[in-house]
Structure formats: C-alpha cells, structure tokens
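Quick one: structure for this chain?
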Amino acid sequence: MDFAASRAQIDVDQVDLSAVAGEDVVVIGGGFGGLSTACYLADAGANVTVVEKNEQLGGRASRLVSDGFRFDMGPSWYLMPDVFERFFGHFDRDVSDYYTLSRLDPHYRIFFKDGDQVDLVPDLEQNKQLFESYESGAAEELERYLEKSQRNYEIGMEHFVYTDRPRLRDYMDLDVLRYSWGLSLIGSMQGHVEDYFEHPKLQQIMQYTLVFLGGSPTNTPALYNLMSHVDFNMGVYYPDGGIGAVVDGIVELGSELGVEYVTDQPVTEIAGKRGGFAVRTEHGEEYLCDLVVSDADYAHTEQEMLPPEKRQYSQEYWDSRTYAPSAFLIYLGVEGDVEPLAHHTLVIPTNWEPHFEEIFENPAWPDDPAYYLCVPSKTDDTVAPEGHSNLFALVPIAPDLEDTPEIREQYRELVLDDIAENTGVSLHDRIVFEKVFSVDDFTDRYNSMQGTALGMAHTLRQTALFRPPHRSKKVDGLYFTGSYTTPGIGVPMCLISGQITAEEIVK
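Got it. Here's what it folds into:
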C-alpha cells in the first residue's frame, strides 16, 4: 500500500548510528518508544536487551484475551500510515512484511446526543457535502482548512517532528524561520477552527482528534490542525489482528536485528553511569550495560529508579504538569451484533465544554460524558466468538480522580445507559464478558503519573522544547524515549521518538 501521494515527502533517514556498535544497551519498557529505540540501536550494531515490567510487550498497547475475545487495551486507531512505512523502510522492510491493513469505511461514526448522526468517510466530496448540509459555504471552507492542515503536516513532520530541536537556539536560524512562516504556531485549536466554521457540530468534528493528543480545544496549540490532514486525507486503517499485530511486527523485526526481550521484570534501580550501568529488578535480576534508555513513565523513572541527586526534576515539577486524561474503560464481550455502531464510534454531547472542564479545570467524573466506542468485530471476525461482538467504551476523565469499586459500578451503569439512550444499542442483558480498567489500573500496570492514560498533554507550554529531554542532564549515558519526550503522544510519535533517542545517543 503506497501512501506517497498523501504523505510528507521525506527520505528514509541515513543517520550514522555506528558509534553504538558493540555497546551493551538496556531499554527499560517495551512500549512503542522502547521497541523503536531498540530496533534502531540493534540495527547499528549495539547489543540490546528490552526489560519489560509486565507479562507482555507493547506498553499501553497491551492485549486482553479471555473467553474467546481479544481486545486492544490501549491504542486502537491506526493513523499516520506514512510514519509506519518510514519506520520499517529504515530497515529495508515493508509494513506488509509484518501485518496487513484494511481501510475503514466509514472512518468513524458520530452520534450527537440531540439525536443527530453522521458518518465521516474516505470520499472527500461526500464529506464536503456533509459539511455543506450544516452550513452554507462549509464545503469550500473544509477544502481550505485541509489545504492548511496538509501544509502544516508536511512542513511540521519534516522540519519539526523528525528533526529534534531541544534548545531555544535551535529555532534561531533562517531555515527554521522560513519553514515556520505561515504555520499555525500561535493560538488555540478552538480559535483556529472558529476561523473556518461557525456551526458547533462542525467545530467538534474538526477537534475530536485532540483527545488522542491529551488536550482540549482551548489548551491545544492550533498547529495540531495537522491532525485533520491525517484524518480526512490519509485515512483511517485497521491492522488485521488489531494494534497488537503492529506490536508483534515490531517485536519480530527487533528479533531479526538481534534484540533480546525479557518480560515480568519490573525495574527498581538504575545505578552507575555511561560504560558502567547496573539495571536492577524487583526479582533480583541485574543487567550490566554501557547505556540505558528508559521508556518507562518519565516521572516514575526519575523518582523511583534514581537517587535524589541524579534526578533532573523535583516531585513539585511533576505535580505541576498538565497531564493528558485518564480513562474509564469497559471491555465487553456481548451476544449478538451491535448494528448501529461502526468500527469507530464517537458519542458527543451537543455542548461538550463541561466535559473538558471536568478533565482540565474542575476534575470530576463527567455527568454528561463524550466517549468513544470501538467495535473491532465489525472488521475482524477473529476477535470474538461466532455470534458475538467485541467492543469497548472509553470515557476520557481527569487524571488522579478517586477510583473506588463503588464509583466504578455507578459509572458503569451511567455509561451503559447513555449508550442505550444515544445509539440505540442496549448491552445490559447481553454481556458475557466484562472488565473495567481505570485510573488506579493505569497507575498499577504502567506506573503512570496520576493515572494518566497518555502522558503529558500537548499544551503550548508542554510542546516541542518544553517537553522533558531525551538525554538526562544528570546521568551520563541515561536516555529517555516515549510519549513524555518529543515529538509526544501517540503510537506514530513514539515510533519517531525512538529514532530521535537513538540519534541523540550518538551525537
């Protein structure tokens, strides 16, 4: 599958990583950032061992398998296919060597809680007609918006995402100023979208992807309108077997390159420095190495694995950050079909501002939530037994909320009732498998700061050089990768983070 016509035209990197040849490297954490970094370093000749806390690799992209059902527990949208092509292309492989893709149609369905329903589809002309039906002139505005979005994507990816600029002086040159001219670097997404569309539903359609960045319309920089190019122009895909199949593919690639993987080994201590590290685990194992890369939660790595004098940031720093939402998740195996739902379905209140306020301003369990439903059994008959459907509901909620069994049960009932009322799908009497996952589980399973589902939000003060660095300023030879670092949140960004970390190691 060739995405060349719709992606930023960037050559596969030819950065010389050979300086790490022969070095022993331990990567702590087997999320996408850690798996990516491991591949780049092993390909360059390093001896790489990935040490993972949990029983399976993939980090937040874990899989839940039970009673004939298989769920992606974390990421479930396959976006930015060009990033995956470029990643595998670096190693002279193709995506198709490891998994296959199906383009979804519709990309996703939206149920507005006033009874309105829309489908966003691969055909741009159909989407333009949809927009025009809500607002005169909106078809032309959508085309104009997407032209801007595509420009932001192509320039942003080539010159600001794949090229790391960790210091202010990195932005003080003519090339950066030239490429920056005309990008949406100032203002919020809310203000930017309002320049194109007046109808609140059209504004919501253009902004829903902010949930994947861990932000809200008012606190996310307008630059992230580039996500609309990803959504409308590049398409939404499903890797057969789910996102877990992508994890398997990258793990297989790593094995071919010589990466060794160890699971069920929670790391408790990083001792030493470049050329003489000891990485120690809860079970008494010790891994000696020259370099360490942490893909574990950044705050947890510093606060729990390092002594105070080797930490870059204080606890107060981490407490003061704006974190992406946590999530209330219900994984459900149900009898029969769920016909009104699409593979990806969004349920949105007519006014969603109160929900965002309950995430970022006044933390509380949302009374009238916006949420996401994923039904992979619509596309993949291997994820559920015959005659059954596989789905999960995801409600973004504030991190660090009180999370008790009583609250979970009450909120479960609220969500199931809301699904029935607003989509017409009644699930209560058909559930044959169920698991709830929420704030405390993110903390326990992933050592996640405040139980965030994603990491640090992409606010203006937490974007680009304002995110924590890939290289420790206190421990020579210690590096970081993953969603806390640049370029940020999301599976494609974490893959790119792995490349940037590998390059940082050899600078």
